[in-house]
């Protein structure tokens, strides 16, 4: 992939990104996972249709599972 032409704003952005890269990595994480292509496309279409972000999907799914487990096992 060819690097775009250097402009003052691109150079400034690159310096900023390089300077703050470790701070961002320490504060954030990712889910590195694979899904079958068909399932991935189905999920992406659903999210797009209802204007839901992947982060919202993960948070809501996590909260739902927490509640389900709490109710099932009577955990507090």
Largest sheet: none
Return the average pLDDT rounded to an integer.
91
- Stretches where pLDDT is under 50 for at least 5 consecutive residues are none
* Strand count: 0
Question: How far is it from the N-terminal to the C-terminal residue, by CA?
Answer: 52 Å
**What gyration radius follows from the Cα positions, in whole Å?**
19 Å
Give the arrangement of secondary structure elements.
Blueprint: H1 8-27, H2 37-49, H3 54-73
Q: Would you kindly provide a written description of the structure presented here, covering whatever features stand out?
A:
By secondary structure, this protein is mainly alpha-helical. 70% of the residues lie in helices and 0% in strands. It is built from three helices and no strands. The protein has helices spanning 8-27, 37-49, 54-73. The longest helix has 20 residues, at 8-27. The protein is elongated and about 60 Å long. The relative contact order is 0.05. The model has no long low-confidence stretch (mean pLDDT 91).
Characteristic key phrases:
mainly alpha; 3 helices; single chain; 76 residues
In short:
This protein is an all-alpha fold. Helices cover 70% and strands 0% of the residues.
């Amino acid at each position: 992939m060819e690097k775009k032409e250097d402009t003052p704003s691109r150079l400034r952005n690159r310096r900023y990104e390089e300077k703050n890269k470790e701070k961002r990595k320490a504060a954030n994480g990712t889910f590195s996972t694979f899904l079958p292509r068909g399932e991935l496309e189905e999920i992406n279409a659903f999210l797009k249709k209802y204007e839901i972000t992947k982060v919202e999907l993960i948070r809501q799914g996590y909260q739902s599972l927490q509640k389900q487990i709490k109710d099932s096992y009577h955990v507090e």
